[in-house]
Design brief:
Shape: globular
Largest sheet: 7 strands, mixed
Structural class: alpha/beta
Helix content: 40-55%
Strand content: 15-25%
Number of strands: 18
Number of helices: 11
CATH class of the largest domain: Alpha Beta
CATH topology of the largest domain: Rossmann fold
CATH superfamily of the largest domain: Translation initiation factor eif-2b, domain 2
Distance between the termini: 37 Å
Radius of gyration: 20 Å
Length: 336
């Protein structure tokens, strides 16, 4: 499934805030609507929001194709900064927009309508490349698993979080389809329940057997069930392989080390940030405490209760067995 798609000169997304109760496709008309969709998690997942930001830039520049070259490129920079500011942790937005800006600058002497059309082509190319990369990740990742494996995953790193196939969930679906995986345990992933709402929905669509668990069941499941691997996605990976991913990932990595379970991170190279040496430099997005005081728009405690909602945590590379990418498998402990 493609969570973002261009059709008949219009851009559409699946509104992920409504799943799994309602499957709704909405049109995004300009960069401001795209920025809002990214902020409110209507589109989410590091590769997906990189792709979304590229399309958002295209939408924002469309009214300027008959303006001046100066106005067009000024707006290109302004729109890019607005989109970059939507979510600070995932590096894919900055990566995608740099690629778009570099492409525009390389053809800046062409007529603006041609530059705009070429930028649209580049955005679609970014999405197509991501899907191809995810298929490569899936094959590399499945090779790491034993036969008849039972795995555990956290949050959502499937087609909804990428161009349309998935990183961690791509490995799991491919593993099931090729007979490597028998069963999946899915963390619900508080506070916004991406595991329960999105990963379970995707696995249902692909007929992959799974069991949904609350986050605080993970340790017990690792102790009492035969978990062969934990597979998660990533939002930013530092030069030393320290990895930022959905809040709760660090706890799973610590548990995996205790129970001697392989802990795999799956991500494309667009998620790597070679500009930061380690995870201490990764900015962690702090979201509204209302996300903790509410469960899927149902308030569970008074507004006066203090609450925090860091969207991500950072897992040190020492706890990561391997990072699976489209270029192969990297083992942090052996790379230093």
């Amino acid at each position: 499934m493609r969570p973002i798609f261009w059709e008949d000169e219009r851009l559409y997304i699946i509104d992920q805030t409504l799943l799994p109760i309602e499957y709704r496709i909405v049109e995004i008309q300009d960069h401001l609507e795209m920025a809002d969709a990214i902020r409110r998690l209507a589109v989410r997942g590091a590769p997906a929001i990189g792709i979304a930001s590229a399309y958002g830039l295209v939408l924002g520049l469309r009214p300027l194709i008959y303006s001046s070259n100066k106005a067009f490129f000024f707006s290109l920079n302004q729109i890019s900064e607005l989109l970059i500011d939507t979510r600070p942790t995932a590096v894919n937005i900055r990566w995608a927009l740099k690629r778009m800006k570099d492409h525009a600058k390389s053809i800046r002497n062409q007529p603006l309508p041609e530059i705009w059309r070429s930028l649209l082509h580049e955005a679609r190319k970014i999405q197509d490349e991501d899907i191809a990369n995810c298929h490569k990740i899936a094959k590399y990742g499945a090779e790491l698993l034993p036969e008849n494996a039972t795995v555990l995953t956290h949050c959502n790193a499937g087609g909804l979080a990428t161009g349309g196939f998935g990183t961690a969930l791509g490995i799991i679906i491919h593993g099931f389809q090729t007979g490597k995986i028998l069963h999946v345990f899915v963390d619900e992933t508080r506070p916004l329940l991406q595991g329960a709402r999105l990963t379970a929905w995707e696995l249902t669509e692909e007929n992959v057997p799974f069991t949904l668990i609350t986050d605080n069941m993970a340790a017990s499941i690792m102790k009492t069930k035969k978990i062969d691997a934990i597979i998660v996605g990533a939002d930013r990976i530092a030069a030393n392989y320290d990895t930022a991913n959905k809040i709760g990932t660090l706890g799973l990595a610590i548990l995996a080390r205790y129970f001697k379970i392989p802990f795999y991170v799956a991500a494309p190279f667009s998620t790597f940030d070679e500009n930061i040496a380690d995870g201490s430099s990764i900015i962690i997005e702090e979201r509204n405490g209302d996300e903790v005081r509410n469960i899927f728009r149902n308030q569970i405690v008074p507004d006066t209760y203090p609450a925090i909602s860091p969207a991500f945590d950072v897992t040190p590379h020492e706890l990561i067995t391997a990072v699976v990418t489209e270029r192969g498998v990297f083992r942090p402990a052996k790379s230093r």
